[in-house]
Amino acid sequence: MLLDGYAFAATVATGLANTTPEVWQGPDHLGDLDALVGFADESDRTAADPADPGRPFGLGELARAADDRRLGAVQSLRYVVRGLIDVPERERLVAGATALTASAGALTLVPGGRADRWAVELAPGGGVDDALALVCGVGILGVVQALGEQRFRQCSAPTCVGAFIDSTRAGRRRYCMPGLCGNRVNVANHRARRASGVTG
Predict the structure, then answer these.
(1) Distance CA 179, CA 139 (A)
(2) Which of the two residues, 181 and 152, has the higher pLDDT score?
(3) 106 three-class SS
(4) β-bridge pairing 152-154 and 163-165
(5) pLDDT digits (tens, 9 = 90+) for 27-78
């Protein structure tokens, strides 16, 4: 995993934290091994290198090899990540994220276009739970270092209990799932304007 890829890693951490039944107010979006594979495959697609789009990040492959014990560990991990997002104190974020990176193996350099890039590998024998912990830890540490702890936020949608890590350049993200929560707020605002006779 490239260590300067913290935006991808923060996106995975946000996605993982928001798979819980509490966020969805209903079904667990990581309730079985098939759901884990789906989440991992989607994360691989998000991480695809534009220079090599056919090369997966590797979470999907690890998820396909997972058993119920690994699934349980991932389900527990999302609550750890959510706990860090919910209390964005710098020292706590750094300590918690550092613990998540314990599954790291070798630190290495990956040849790049203009310069080599730092990367970390999963320790031998690591599973999808270890890989996701590593990714989430790198995402949290990267955002704390590059953008600051104020980028860890609660969703602004009035009916949502989700949270997110804002790794956008502008830092103005308001919703844990912009396509879902943001759309719901926009639709509700539009309906309220129509009901009051205001257009626009």
Answers:
(1) 21
(2) 152
(3) strand
(4) antiparallel
(5) 999 999 999 999 999 998 887 665 555 455 689 999 999 999 999 999 999 9
| pTM assigned to the model | 0.85
Find, among 169, 1, 18, the residue nearest to 85 by Cα.
18
pLDDT digits (tens, 9 = 90+) for 149-167: 999 999 988 888 999 999 9
Strands 104-110 and 163-165: unpaired
Residues 7 and 140 sit within 8 Å (Cβ to Cβ): no
Q: Rounded to the nearest 5°, which phi and psi values hold at 146?
A: -85, -35
Return the bridge partners of 154, or none. 163
Q: Tell me, what amino acid is at 191? A: R
Q: Are 63 and 40 in contact (CB under 8 A)?
A: yes
Query: Tokens 């103005």 belong to which residue?
Result: 172
Altogether, the residues listed in the chain come to a count of: 200
Distance CA 59, CA 8 (A): 13
State residue 49 phi and psi, 5-degree precision.
-80, 120
Query: d(Cα 162, Cα 159) in Å, to the nearest integer?
Result: 9
Element (H, E) at 70: helix 68-86
User: Which burial class, exposed, middle or buried, applies to 197 when counting CB atoms under 10 A from its CB (0-12, 13-18, 19+)?
Assistant: exposed
